[in-house]
Fold:
Amino acid sequence: MVREDFPSWRSQVERVSGCVRPVRVAGSAAAADSGSGEVLAAFSSRDAPDGVVLVACGDRRASVCPACSERYRRDLWHLVASGMRGRDGASADDAVPGTVGAHPRLFVTLTAPSFGPVHTARGGGCRPRRSGARCVHGRPLGCDLVHEADHRVVGTPVCPECWDYTGAVLWNAHVGELWRRTRIAVGRALAPAASAALGRRVTVREVDRLLRVSYVKVAEYQRRGLVHLHAVVRLDGVDPDDASAVVAPPSWATPALLAGAVRSAASSVSFALPSPDGALRSCEWGPQLDVRDVTATGEDDPARLAAYLAKYATKTAADSAPGALAHRLRRLDLAGLVAKVGPHLARMAATAWALGGRRDLEHLGLRRWAHALGYRGHLATKSRRFSTTMAALRAVRRTWRARQRVEEGSPDPWAQAASGDAVLLGQWAYAGTGFTGLADADLAAGITADLEHARREYRELLAREAALAREL
Ligand SMILES: [Zn+2]
Ligand SMILES: [Zn+2]
Ligand SMILES: [Zn+2]
Structure:
């Protein structure tokens, strides 16, 4: 059946650019002249298809909404790349000076410690052991097999009974705090490094007045369900007259000095985890620490690193199993989870769920984060001055779209509101999520595919034109 209001419905679907589960809102809006207050236009969702307006869900996870996640990935790419090579920006808080390209910069990977042996895919056998020894559960301690890298057993415990699920979930739940303490420790470790570089005693407080560490970091789930952190860490100077300015650090503040401080901080930070089962565990980083100097990189490297980080920020705890661990669990359905994500990740989620029921761990909200295997943070975060913000990037996109509409000859009041010449007044209420029927969802998927196809053709056309221009 074809909808009678198909044309206006279609334009709604196009506006949410292929979002698979748009939020439906009902209400009205008016655009008023910012000077006189005169109402320039009014709109009510009553006149729209189904009486609602569609708003893109904005979910950053590829397994939840490919279209919104793609938009998020692109924004994050811009954010990371701008922090590495600068950005002109549309506004003061959107701009990053191009000189950041010369600031000391590291690419740092921080890993989780071991919570017991897991199957691996390193060439030449998983965990060969000659003795044939067994654990208390009667399982062999080693594994003679050679696993393909993408085999589902890779990353799962050799003996699930021996593996420390409680420790793993608690570690995930505290990795945000571990990062916070590491950041502070980096600041402190810069003082002795600065003292050595300057040949006199430099206090932590003095270092704070001279240097600022900026970063963007992304959490990536490993196969074993623990998170890794990848971060671009940049060393800036401090302008005594303008705290918000991003300026070059003094010349003695080299990449090697920053790397030393990061290494020393990452290997020394440690604090006690809560102990629901009486076992004493400390929260610290695993021994695998990768600190790479990416200051003197080529033109393409910032772009490549940015793409690398952006890719991880759109993955969920179990990306190979779409949906299964993408949303909060309402109850624990262990059999269902096992069927969807395999026994190991299911047990991680179940452990988080069980720990979440304990009074003494209430503050961790582990039931709410059971689907994230205890990890409670955002997949991507940055320090304030590293780069532009997601909000600034979104505002730029809105303004650009509005300007485009004006150039196309339709200077509508909504576009004026978006560009700041008019004010927007509105009252909206949530009316539901997703398309209302299967037929609608199918239609929308078709439109999305059409749009994607058109975009691809357009990109190819641009590439052909560029190639032609080079030949001429
Ligand atoms: Zn979406
Ligand atoms: Zn194995
Ligand atoms: Zn065992």
Remarks:
- The mean pLDDT is 83.
- The first helix runs from residue 6 to 15.
- The first strand starts at residue 23 and ends at 33.
- Residues 19-21, 56-57, 59, 65, 67-68 surround zinc ion (ligand 1) (CB under 6 Å).
